[in-house]
Structures are given as structure tokens and as C-alpha cells.
Amino acid sequence: MAKRILVTGAAGFIGYWTAKSLAEAGHSVIGVDNFNAYYDPALKRARAALLKDVCPILEADVSDRSALDRLLDAHPVDQVCHLAAQAGVRYSLENPFAYESSNALGTLNLLEFCRRRGVGSFVYASSSSVYGGNTKIPFSVDDPVDRPVSLYAATKRYNELQAHVYHHLYGMHCTGLRFFTVYGPWGRPDMALFKFTKAILEGNPIDVYNHGKMRRDFTFVSDIAAGVTAALAKDYPYEIFNLGDAHPVELTRFIEILEKTLGREAKKNLLPLQPGDVPATVADIAASQKKLGFNPTVRLEEGIPRFVAWYRDYHKV
């Protein structure tokens, strides 16, 4: 059944892909984004331009409650898909207050919006970062997550606690989705694949943290969007799911695939593990497979060339 769905952060990377997926599934989608300057807003405007016929995007900051209310008053919705957030682990060391404002207050504003308007379904983005320095592999949603190692991770765990409160007090259906290292076309410039591709094509060195010995559960963005769409369709009373590829890859292998795709060898600055980073992320997706039908299909060997093809086209390289 078609629904009216609000997608916050709709001009963002995952927001764009999710809004597109929902519209293609026949839903009526409206977006909100603040088009901030964390990275070049032109990329966000370009995503929004592609969505203009299927998802109008209202310009507002989710941390500004009065502005959000003014814009949304005229747009009744059945569900909220909350993907807006201040992203980035390392940036949280430089600008911690951006995370308190966007992630903590912004999520509270959206939950209150749902409560006041009787919107009983709230699906929101969490992160694999909530697992902190967890050494148990793979990461399960049943694992303790009370020792974050970055402020970004702390705000994402706080979002999960906020959602639980609104489920408990008001019966709101809340589903949290812990994303694992999302990549793909239209990705963010601050992410490794984007930065590495740009640097290699320009002949510049890349910074390889932990001497390339990090393992990441790289997950293609269309698989993530499919998981978000499934969570909205299922509308469970209260759940948290991992959305990851479940095929972790060492960073050195990731770089090898990129070098082969570009036909160029990377110059590498081998550096230690950075504050706030963790050496490995691996998703246990058994519950997501069972309850959401989540089955990621795009492996790195396919996903990296897809990103590179987009990058070359977008930047006319």
C-alpha cells in the first residue's frame, strides 16, 4: 500500500538513494534537507535536482524546531524516515557541537513531530559506530553498546535510546538501522572511496590508517536503501537491525580493487589508527535477513567500478 513518507536528509548520500527507492516503489515522498556546508553543497543540490520530479525537498534544519514545524504543517505524512545527521567520526573531534545539535536535538524534534501529529511510525539511521571497540566478531544487535569511542557514535546510541523512550511512552513504532560503511555512486567526498579515487587520479598520495590493517564491512548503497525500504514496509513496533554486507574486507584489498579499476597504483602514506576509529567492523545480519528479507548482493568487485564510473562522469574525468 502506498504511503506518504517524510525522508530527512533527502539530499544526502543515503537519503537520495532511499527517497529514489521509495518513490520507485510507488510511495508519495517528501524530503527535508538543510544543504549545509560540511561538504560541497553543490553535490547535494545535484542529487536534489535528480529527485525533483519524485520527491520535493523542503529546505530546513532538523535542529530548528520552529522552522521544521512551519514547513511540515502543510505536509501530512504516514511515516518518518529520519536519515538526516551530522556524519563523520573524525569531524566529531573538531566540531563536537554540530553532533549535539543535528543528531541529538534533531532526532528529538522529529520524534516530537511524530508524537504531536500522531505519526506512529519512525525509522531512523543509527550506525555501526555504536559498537565502539567491541572485539567480538561479528557485531550483533544483542551486544552491549555502552562504551562508544567517538562523540558521533555516542550521539547515534543516544538516538536509539530516544526512540526507545518514545516507543515505551507513546507506543510509537520505532526501527533503528545500524549502517556499516556505506559506499557507492553519489557518495560523500569525506569518505575513503571518494578521497582515494580523487587522490589517485590526481597523482596525490592517500592516507592509509592503521597501515591498511583495518577491516571494514563495506556495504553498497542500493543494498542499504533496500534495507531501509523494507524496514518502513515491515513497520515493527520496536527493533534495531544491522545493515551490512557481512563480507568484511581489509583496507589493503579495498585499495587493490580501486587501483585495478582506475588502472593506476596508489601512493600510500601509512599512518597509525586515528582517534575514534576502530580496527574492524563486521555485521551479524541474521535478524535482518529473517525479519526484513535483507540480502545484500553487490560485492566490492562490482561496487567500486560502479562508483568510479559515476565519479568519472560527474567530475568529467
Give the tags.
Rossmann fold; about 325 residues; single chain; 11 helices; seven-stranded parallel β-sheet; two-stranded parallel ribbon; alpha/beta; globular
Q: How would you explain this protein's 3D organization?
A:
The protein is of the alpha/beta class and 317 residues long. It has a domain at 4-181 and 220-244 and 282-296: Rossmann fold (3-Layer(aba) Sandwich), CATH 3.40.50. It contains 11 helices and 13 strands. The chain has helices at residues 13-24, 41-51, 65-72, 91-94, 96-117, 151-170, 192-202, 221-234, 251-262, 286-292, 300-314, and strands at residues 4-8, 28-33, 57-59, 79-82, 121-127, 173-179, 182-183, 206-209, 215-216, 219-220, 238-243, 249-250, 268-271. The strands form 4 sheets. A 7-stranded parallel sheet has the order 3-2-1-4-5-6-11, sandwiched between helices. A two-stranded parallel sheet has the order 7-10. Helix 9 (251-262) crosses helix 11.
CATH C-level of the domain at 4-181 and 220-244 and 282-296: Alpha Beta
Please give the share of residues in helix.
40-55%
Number of helices: 11
Quick one: overall form?
globular
State the strand order across the main sheet.
3-2-1-4-5-6-11
- CATH fold title of the domain at 4-181 and 220-244 and 282-296: Rossmann fold
